[in-house]
Design brief:
The longest helix has 22 residues, at 6-27. The strands form four sheets. The protein has a nine-stranded mixed sheet. A seven-stranded mixed sheet has the order 3-2-1-4-7-6-8. A four-stranded mixed sheet has the order 16-23-18-19. α2 runs parallel beside α3 (135-148) and α8 (271-282) packs across α9. It has 25 helices and 23 strands. β2, α3 (135-148) and β3 form a beta-alpha-beta unit. With 737 residues, the protein is an alpha/beta fold.
Length: 737
Amino acid sequence: MLPRGRPRALGAAALLLLLLLLGFLLFGGDLGCERREPGGRAGAPGCFPGPLMPRVPPDGRLRRAAALDGDPGAGPGDHNRSDCGPQPPPPPKCELLHVAIVCAGHNSSRDVITLVKSMLFYRKNPLHLHLVTDAVARNILETLFHTWMVPAVRVSFYHADQLKPQVSWIPNKHYSGLYGLMKLVLPSALPAELARVIVLDTDVTFASDISELWALFAHFSDTQAIGLVENQSDWYLGNLWKNHRPWPALGRGFNTGVILLRLDRLRQAGWEQMWRLTARRELLSLPATSLADQDIFNAVIKEHPGLVQRLPCVWNVQLSDHTLAERCYSEASDLKVIHWNSPKKLRVKNKHVEFFRNFYLTFLEYDGNLLRRELFVCPSQPPPGAEQLQQALAQLDEEDPCFEFRQQQLTVHRVHVTFLPHEPPPPRPHDVTLVAQLSMDRLQMLEALCRHWPGPMSLALYLTDAEAQQFLHFVEASPVLAARQDVAYHVVYREGPLYPVNQLRNVALAQALTPYVFLSDIDFLPAYSLYDYLSPRCPALLPCSWVLLLRASIEQLGLGSRRKAALVVPAFETLRYRFSFPHSKVELLALLDAGTLYTFRYHEWPRGHAPTDYARWREAQAPYRVQWAANYEPYVVVPRDCPRYDPRFVGFGWNKVAHIVELDAQEYELLVLPEAFTIHLPHAPSLDISRFRSSPTYRDCLQALKDEFHQDLSRHHGAAALKYLPALQQPQSPARG
């Protein structure tokens, strides 16, 4: 007698076997591909799914990566299907893949970085990026890639301004403007020896290795020159609204967010004449392009269908309004490239938008430093400076108590200049830019600083990739910050345990565009009138006659080529988080006498600002000269081409002092301004100050850096550097704040 329950178990097993057998008989052992012979007859042996198609149920509805429902002419052998046959061979492991991107402006540059991150994350091949940019994007991306130092990535730039005349005659309603038409001229703009290229919009994100996309070139026939994914909306069917008149297209049309171009074949076919003739003809009856280059590509393909190779839809999953993209995939592993081709971008409505948004945010906030990985089996030319950097790092002794300091000095930080839209100030001969640096915990200072300093600013921010996005949202949500287009924010991406304060200052200083700079710190608020005091511009609040008579103005002091000077802005501090900021020197002196204000670091480190001679400043009516003294670290206004900060000083201690030493060694006069002042606001001590106060090793390492600084000073200035030796030998007080 069988044990109780055994008959049910046997019955269930038999039913499972029967279902498996039926599945094998119905689907030939493969749910993703019908067996075909080369001639199309079913049942040929050795057939397997196309390499890029998701596995789908036999009815092909919704999840099928072949046709979209309602597509005219779609059927078993439809144009978006990857027919059974040999897989295209992957490109050789070290083959150089070429990618072209058109990019203009600050926002588009940020998009490019997210796109490149997704490519680098999955890629196994060396890449050559061909970037068609305006001057703004070139400045941003050239600096970024130079400092990113990614192995096996080459970058070439092409001037978009030189290409504008070739497309400026085409009226275009698309938000991308002229830049949205520039993919049309890539065959002539890119090097003549370049035969194949992948062309990408800036708003795409990779979910797979780009070499798989490159491999699809092997599917091209001898006449095909353009690889495209079908458009995943009804736009070109002309039925979205009454009187909707799209440009002509083949069926549903094609989307040009991802393109494979055989440049050699397009050149041979006379591509330039082809698209120009088509565009001119269509513009006789249509007022403008609505979707930029995509309209013209589709019109050409409608007339010359033999040019196009249809790519599987997973290589351009389009998240536009009215999209049918969800019919293209059944699970996340199906996705290859996600395209945010709606003006709404991440706010677009889609059944799976939360998944796509999170996928995009993963790369947006991904630490780009982790993508500096080598392709070990692919020898390639190292990025400029990489070999010397590796040699210097290899010489460091990890047992050295100051190893962290040495390593931090050698770190090359990724730098994203003008992270947000920025309008350079109009040229003025004596204009001044406020230069400062900050980290995430000082963002709250920005609004107050903008209220106090109405002039241009150049600020370096030390952030992680994720913090950079938080900063972006912080600025967008602030009416005060969003209104200031003359503030340039430069993100230096965080790497290493110590704060690279002088490297940050140098980034901000290098990006200043005015003849003069005010070298400040983010926790200081300058006098409301300081900007106009330094660089008179006849503001409404001050009579022009009064401004022009200011004896402390840069112009009247004759700075620049005639006189080498650093203008000292006296520094004060309050220990109160709330106090009434003085509007004049008279009000400041009253607060000073009342004990609400103090001269800066009066209690902890008076020697840092004592040479300013505050007693003399109280009565001064004109600028007066002071002499350098040990540990002097005033805040100064200097010409933009002043000496840079010494980057060896990281963390806390001597970073400003060393800069004032260098100014004095180069014979800058120190002139104290009688009506200027800046006030330090209280805040919690930084981690580096805490380490300086608590760690004798930290202070010993700082002394070692000072000794090395003096050695370099002696090499550059000879015997004149001896005057600084006593100051360099003075120990740093652990009480210093």
